[in-house]
Amino acid sequence: MVGFALQDFIFNCGGSSVAFIFMTSLDSGTISQFFGRVQKLKLQFANLYVVITLPTKEQNDLFVRSYFKFGMELGKPTFVLVKDLEMGFEKITKIAHSRGVCKREDATTKLKAERKQTVQTPGIFQKVITAIPGIDNHDANALNQAIGSIDGIAKASREHIMENTDLSADKAQMLSRFFRDPKFYLSPKIN
């Protein structure tokens, strides 16, 4: 297998394991094996990063086509694209160090608590919910009173939304689809 250079690294940073797959040379003959390895390690590590050197436009195009062909989900795992080996090692070191610092200072718990508090602020809740196509202020208020949180709305079924609010079947379907269908919520919305 010419040009196939794949390395796995696992760092223990502040009590948290951070795994990296470092692909130093990508070509069409090794792409399926590479994405197979990514899928396997994705199931084993919560903190997985895939660092790939893509010095040419052709390699970048191959990666982009293959990313969707092999059914990768955005952000799961995080892919870090770099131009050369040195930059790849630098990114691995910085990510591992920052994950360790976050773990040591318990920054992720603080950020989650801050995010939860911010999202529960009534004005923010209104802005987030009314940003969904077809949902107005009245609908957002009804959802806030009946379900209470964005997380709750995301988990609620169409039927649950209709039973507990005065929203129409179309709006309940829109909400349900918005939170569950990545093709829908990642597509552009024109108001």
Automatic annotation (TrEMBL):
Pfam families in the record: HHH_5 (PF14520)
SUPFAM superfamilies in alphabetical order: RuvA domain 2-like
Gene Ontology BP, a term: resolution of meiotic recombination intermediates
Protein name: Protein PARTING DANCERS
